DNA sequence: GTGGTCTAGACCACC
DNA sequence: GTGGTCTAGACCACG
């Protein structure tokens, strides 16, 4: 998985990292139980401080995307995939995010079909979630 | 238009304000040329510092959502609605945003139809963009 | 509120800090909405790095004990006090903690009355939770 | 005795092990003088490194919960059960632990009776300490 | 080897 | 003024 970071942007590096890893998981590039690069490794690869990577991992852990197995480092942990809106807080966040993006798109001149096509493409990107690497 | 601000929370107040106004425009609550509340009016209503509101307006202006009319203050300025991806930088940002949201949704267990339904609902919210009130 | 830190102990400083503040809230030394000392202030008082204090505050925030109002810094935020075991994860943690402490006490020779007296004293310490300082 | 270990999570494995064994002793599942499983036996059962189990046993020994019998390995050694607060360091630790748990419970909305009921249940768990199996 | 903690000091965004 | 971010580098506990 290739991660590109924009050091000069306004989004904190650790958050960009968190976002990219979430996208990677969503794209199916990590199976359930698969290990992420070590903190030091990733920090060296990206040329950032290891505390920055560590913070991204802690963030992912607190959100339930990964666990840090004391033996193996950070591993992806996909939740049980039950009904969609089990987490109302997430649903609200999702709705709000989609409303903002769609408003911007609408104002820029997007038609509904174009917007939905992009949504569809985003959701279908990657090879789907894969289970069982643990 | 009612705006709710969360003073705790990660998103800066001025950005929340900017976001809510963009959503409002997207929902069609402002016609092209319609005036926004004055900075100090809005600041008083929300109980925030007027510099914060000012910054939000500055941000909207630099993004082309509003213009500053000497007499009437800040007015909404909808762009000509040309082809969708005229602005490649915006397209990239939109794609990235959708990819992140869809990844989170996928991991949470959303199926494609559910996600697309939410996208569709978000886009259709409000009464559509209205032109020419100036 | 006086906080004493054991720099040489095995509990991380930020966690000791978090614990002491939770105890302080439990003792009723902070009303709902009351501001905590600033990060820098507390760091200076305790002679520790401000990132350490910051980490303690972030921990408290992620657990819902405080919020960080962008204007006023960190403020105590007491949750609605509804039914006791609303949070099953917490209940489990509490049970486990009590089982461990009671086992140690039993082995040390405590009788039930002695143990319960200490539990009672611990719960009643301070002047109770106080609301409304917002 | 069944021991469950959480390899992710903040508490080191050897400490979880130590805690579970202390709980087991408190519940009366080990008579005075009864032998614990061998280090490598327990390590194999739990799927952890035997050094980890060894460290847990070392910890228990230094705290006086077990002794190392040359023939039989680690055996439980209950102290004479004298007056409660013979060990002031332990009393302080116990008080501090109870204060923390009770503060968390109070903030979560527990009433005193509920909390005391849980304390009582924790203390009474198991079949009491049994002496003299050695 | 791993992640976690801590420091000292810097810079920045926000309000 | 506030908290948040980041760095470089150190040390430690865990397994």
Task: Tell me what you see in this structure.
4 copies of one chain form a homotetramer. The first copy, chain A, is mostly helical and 134 residues long. Chain A has 2 domains: 13-76, Orthogonal Bundle (Arc Repressor Mutant, subunit A), CATH 1.10.10.10; 88-124, no CATH class. In chain A, a hairpin with a 3-residue loop joins strand 1 and strand 2. Chain A has a two-stranded antiparallel ribbon. In chain A, helix 1 (13-26) crosses helix 3 (50-62) and helix 2 (39-46) packs across helix 3. Helices cover 51% and strands 6% of the residues of chain A. Chain A is built from 5 helices and 2 strands, in the order H-H-H-E-E-H-H. Chain A is globular and about 50 Å long. Chains A and B meet through helix 1, helix 4 and helix 5 of A and helix 1, helix 4 and helix 5 of B. Chain A binds a DNA duplex (15 and 15 nucleotides) through helix 3.
Can you describe this structure in just a few lines?
The structure is a homotetramer. Chain A has about 130 residues and is mostly helical. Chain A has two domains: about 15-75, Winged helix-like DNA-binding domain superfamily/Winged helix DNA-binding domain (Arc Repressor Mutant, subunit A, Orthogonal Bundle), CATH 1.10.10; about 90-125, no CATH class.
Mean pLDDT over the full residue set of chain A: 91
Q: How many DSSP helices of chain A?
A: 5
Going across the biggest sheet of chain A, name each strand in turn: 1-2
Radius of gyration of chain A: 17 Å
Find the count of extended strands of chain A (DSSP E, 2+ residues). 2
Could you give the order of the helices and strands of chain A?
HHHEEHH
- What oligomeric state do these chains adopt? homotetramer
The CATH superfamily of the largest domain in chain A appears as: Winged helix-like DNA-binding domain superfamily/Winged helix DNA-binding domain
Unreliably modeled segments of chain A: none
Ends apart, CA distance between termini of chain A: 19 Å
Number of domains of chain A: 2
Biggest protein-protein contact in the assembly: A-B, 46 and 46 residues
**Overall outline of chain A:** globular
- Fraction of residues in helix of chain A: 40-55%
| CATH fold-level label of the largest domain in chain A | Arc Repressor Mutant, subunit A
Largest sheet of chain A: 2 strands, antiparallel
What class do helices, strands and sheet pairing of chain A give?
mainly alpha
Strand content of chain A: 5-15%
